[in-house]
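Researcher: I'm preparing a figure for a lab meeting and need a structural model of a single chain. I don't have an experimental structure, so a prediction will have to do for now. The sequence is pasted below. Please return the structure as tokens so I can convert it later.
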Amino acid sequence: METMKTDHSRRDQIDFENLGFGEEFSDHMLIMDYRDGEWGPAKIVPYGPIEVFPQCARSTTGRWS
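Model: Understood. Here is the structure written out token by token.
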């Protein structure tokens, strides 16, 4: 699996004894492309923005945005 390490880790700033849900995020994320009914190879990349096409714009409640 392809892995791209971040240049700016925040690991030393995390209090692992007091983690809160949705308060701390990984320095990296896994991404995979889905095309023609199949998943492509997985990649681990530095945490950052993801591309979302307008056709996928739905709220988490399932209502159209």
